[in-house]
Amino acid sequence: MAPELSEGKTVAVIMVGGPTKGTRFRPLSLNLAKPLFPLAGQPMVHHPILSCKKIPNLAHIFLIGFYEEREFSVYCSAISNELKIPVRYLREEKAHGSAGGLHNFKELLMEYCPENIIVLNCDVCCSFPLKEMLDAHKAHGGMGTLLVKKVSPDVASQFGELVADPHSGELLHYAEKPETFVSDHINCGVYMFTPDIFKAIADVSTSRKDRALRRLNSFEALQSATKSIPTDFVRLDQDILTPLAGKKQLYTFETADFWEQIKTPGMSLRCSSLYLEEYRRTSPDLLAKGDNIIGDVFIHPSARIHPSAKIGPNVSISANARIGPGARLIGCIILDDVEIKDNAVVMHSIVGWKSTVGRWSRVQGGGDYNSKLGIAILGEDVCVEDEVVVVNCIVLPHKNLNQSVLEEIIL
């Protein structure tokens, strides 16, 4: 019997952005890189990394972004040891675009001679069906495959809209956030590419250089003046997907599972609940159990919960948190070193590091994840004194609240 051919290697790239990008995530990103913010008890970037781990012959995982290297050094070292797969952070010195960033680190990515390169955006929450997607990508035989999802037409324009052949899955047309409706199928920000992607990116840069060198007619000169994009700044969506659609190079893989974009603290609370729900299917051992636990709840082993406190559903409690007698927690993220005192209530809220919620106090949001004041957010080291009610407020770090507040941003 002839031996089976070994599968080619795969490398994964997770785009993590930078501190100037995630401004809508403040105040939670003021003292922690957004990709390390915990969802369902694990850093945001941890969820796609765990999904990448399931890919056969995965050689390396790279994180590419603009954060200082020190912000990721401890995490990358710990996760590399835990998963027994090297995870390395690569810092971009300047913006190259989502595709240009890949090309900027081409030599490092190609060290392993990979047959396929997985590219994911960190601020995406989904079940990441990477293994099934890679199988489909190999079957299509194209240069790339993108994860797509059908959404309601009224929200489609917030994303890249696309048209695909219903039988072959070929990408026929792509438009990034179009002004007029194109399709109710959107780009999910998860891709599979062969190394041919590097030639496609280089071709975009070369054509820009050629255009800059030759003499332009007056109309072209006017256009180039208004669209002076650097030659090495290449975007995956407008510069790769749009021109290559309909050329039998790109294909789609549709998911019917959950998918969200994590742009705001409200959406992080929504996505934390989605990951907690997924734990029930994939990692039930991560969920807390007990007579005082309702629904899906994650509790860090170092947290101390009084047995008379009632927790859940959709609650994530981080390291060294202390939850007092009679406290009630629903739909919230409790971060490290938080103290929730006796009989306090926290609902639809995020309570920041080292914060305190006093006895008989209430911190509550309305539960509208898309609205700016749809949830309550306490930044780091906020003290809500006893018997104070905080509803639909964003409170910046190091504040002391001794009176009740409603729908305010407290600077």
TrEMBL record:
Coiled-coil ranges per UniProt: none
Cited Pfam families: GMPPB_C, NTP_transferase
UniProt similarity note: Belongs to the transferase hexapeptide repeat family.
Residue intervals of the Mannose-1-phosphate guanyltransferase C-terminal domain: 293-408
Domain Nucleotidyl transferase, chain residue ranges per copy: 12-208
GO molecular function, one term: nucleotidyltransferase activity
Full protein name: Nucleotidyl transferase domain-containing protein
